Amino acid sequence: MSAIETITKAAHLIDMNDIIREGHPTLRAIAEEVTFPLSDQEIILGEKMMQFLHHSQDPVMAEKLGLRGGVGLAAPQLDISKRIIAVLVPNPEDEEGNPPKEAYSIQEVMYNPKIVSHSVQDAALGDGEGCLSVDRNVPGYVVRHARVTVDYYDKTGEKHRIKLKGYNSIVVQHEIDHINGVMFYDRINPKDPFAVKDGMLILE
User: Keywords for this entry (predicted)?
Assistant: First the structure.
């Protein structure tokens, strides 16, 4: 049974065993575009990927299923070489600890996502990046665009264009890298991992 057949079975919940790790050739392949209308399997795959992210951020489900917390997942990480990503970034509580008005700043399954324009300015997360496919800590600034405009399709085949900045921009770029065979540490300066270029934003 192929990975997509296993993962899209009705009772299957994606867990860490479904996620392939660095060194696996699928993570270095350029994934194939999906065509519309999507197959039922491709729609279910997107829903299962989003369900995994919700589970990974829920302390009870994460413990039950043994999940690492995640804000994004790309189909190639499941050994499915298709241009499908899911992103789920929660909004923080306010200073008084009240829940945010909107639970998520971005919650989307994107089919064939593509960066169509980006800022000249670069940005990196102060704490570096992690990845569900990488079981080790890789220190260094992962240099990305500070702002991006992304085109993508939803499961109905409708086209969307969104402008992203800050953390959301970094998360989506990380996942788009996965469908292009790029790992986050490819973007760390090997000679000086914490080098800061002129004007680069460091996001804490």
Answer: Hydrolase, Iron, Metal-binding, Protein biosynthesis
